[in-house]
Structures are given as C-alpha cells and as structure tokens.
Write a structure and sequence with these properties.
The structure is a homodimer.
Chain A (H helix, E strand, L loop, with lengths): L1 H15 L8 H54 L7 H17 L4 H23 L7
Chain lengths: 136, 136
Amino acid sequence: MARDAWRLKVANVTSWHRSDRSFGRRRRRLTRVARVEEPVAIELRRLRDSIDNMDAALVHLLAERFKITKEVGELKRRHGLPPADPAREAQQIARLRSLASEAKLDPEFAEKFLTFVVAEVVRHHEAALGSTRSAG
Amino acid sequence: MARDAWRLKVANVTSWHRSDRSFGRRRRRLTRVARVEEPVAIELRRLRDSIDNMDAALVHLLAERFKITKEVGELKRRHGLPPADPAREAQQIARLRSLASEAKLDPEFAEKFLTFVVAEVVRHHEAALGSTRSAG
C-alpha cells in the first residue's frame, strides 16, 4: 500500500513534470511505472478520496447520533418510559425506505442499515443501563 | 403512533396556550394528558427530530457512496485491476478507527460499520458484474 501511495504521488507529479529532467535512477524507474498507470491511478485516487471524505462524514454523523440516542435512553429511564417503541421503529423504517428510494439507494439496504445501527444503540443501552432497549 | 403524534402536537400547542380557554371536550381531555407528559414528550420529540435529520443525512451520504463505489468497480473492471484490495481495506479500517476515536465513537463500531457497508458494496458488485469484490 505504501508503495502504491508513492506510485500515485509520482503519477500526480509526473502529470505536471512530464519532461526529460533527471530525477535520479529511483525516480525514473517509478516514473516509467507511473506513466503506464497514470490516468487510471489518478482516477482511482480521486474516487477513493471522495469515498474517504464520505466515510469521515458518516463516522462523525454516527458519533452525533449515538450522543442523541444516549440522551433518549437517559430521558426514558428518568421518566420510566418503556425503552422499546415498536411504533417509532416502524415509522423510522418506513421513512428511511422512502428516503432511500428517492436517493436511488436500495430501500432494503436502508432498512438493514437502520437495523444495524439500532442493534448498536441497544448494545450501548444494555451496557450502560442493564438490559433496556431503545431505538431512539 | 398517530395518537402519540397528536398528543405531542397538543403538548406543543398547550405550551403556548396553557389557559382556561375552551377547546371542546376532546381537546380538553387530550390537554389533560398532554400536561402530565408535556415536557418529556417535547424533549423526546426534539431528540427524535435530530435523529431523523441525521438518518436522512446518513442515507443520502450512503447513496452517494454507492454511486462512487460503483464507479470504482467499473474502472477496475475496464482496466483489469483486481477487484479486491486488502491493503486499501486495511488502510480504510485504520483511518476510520482513528476518526471514530477522535469523535468519541467506539472504534469497534466504526470498523463493524465499514465491514457492513463493504459487504453491501460486494453484494452490489456481485449482482452487477458476476463475482467480483471491491471495497472501493
């Protein structure tokens, strides 16, 4: 991977300095490799950079979401509300499926995603409070 | 759920019109219920509205992410690149775990999340291209 990263770096550099300037033996060897792969490597890097940006956004959103479900769990506990709320969960699933369809995302995946996140919320609540359950 | 939604609506209304104005028998009955639950119901609604906003953002980000992994899959296929890239996956996991720690999100969850999303990407690729594999 480190080698690939370097190769991509070189691909970037050589796209601006594609000259017969001497960069030394190591650089020339890498440049030859980079010339073959350059456009594909650059395109792959561009797409992966976007994926990485989105993953960072997803992780930060999830971090905020867990802060709020923690608050929901505490609120319910303080006021003796039942931790589970099947009607709320059904409403969340229906809404996310609908949003997914509009965004051209597989609604099945959106539902699986919510189930996955809720399972983690449940795990947090159980760890924090004994054996409660809440989808938020 | 419809009844709960109505109750929350009333709770909102009564917080501004907590007077002896007559709203009719049905409204008075609902208002009595709402008075007991009002602050908790409003707080729960507020927290759930935020969760719903975040879930919408998550779904839309995931929709964009899948568009890009689809592009990655097509790029790799066109140029005969191997669909799987274990080094890239290891790098993604390490990065997400680190971002999660900074955001006070359980790094284990961040890793499980990426694995979950990648499994879906693989499923998409397999459905679209035969039996390839790519984490993007």
